[in-house]
Amino acid sequence: MKKSLCPVCDVEVTLENNTEESEIISCPECKTRLVVTSLKMKSAILEEAPKIEEDWGE
Q1: 12, 35, 39, 53: least surrounded by Cβ within 10 Å?
Q2: Exposure class string for 20-46: b at 16+ Cβ within 10 A, else e
C-alpha cells in the first residue's frame, strides 16, 4: 500500500495498491476530495481536487 499526506489537514492517507494516477479519493479525516497526481514505489502525491462547477457537463 502507498501512503501520502493530505495537503489540507496533514493526516496520513493510505492508498490501495490498485490506485491509479488521476483517481479521486477522499481524506479519511477531513473528507476533502483529493486527486492522485503522481505515484511512486511506496508513496503518492495528492492535491486537492477542483471543486465541481455548476456548468460542468454542459
Answers
A1: 53
A2: eeeeebebeeeebebebeebeeeebeb
* pLDDT tens, position by position, 15-27: 998 999 999 999 9
Question: Cα separation of 24 and 34, whole Å?
Answer: 6
Q: Is 57 a residue whose pLDDT tops 60?
A: no
Residue-range domains of the chain with CATH? 2-48 (2.20.28.160)
CB atoms within 10 A of CB 13: 21
Beta strand residue intervals within the chain, DSSP E = 2-5, 12-15, 24-26, 33-39, 44-48
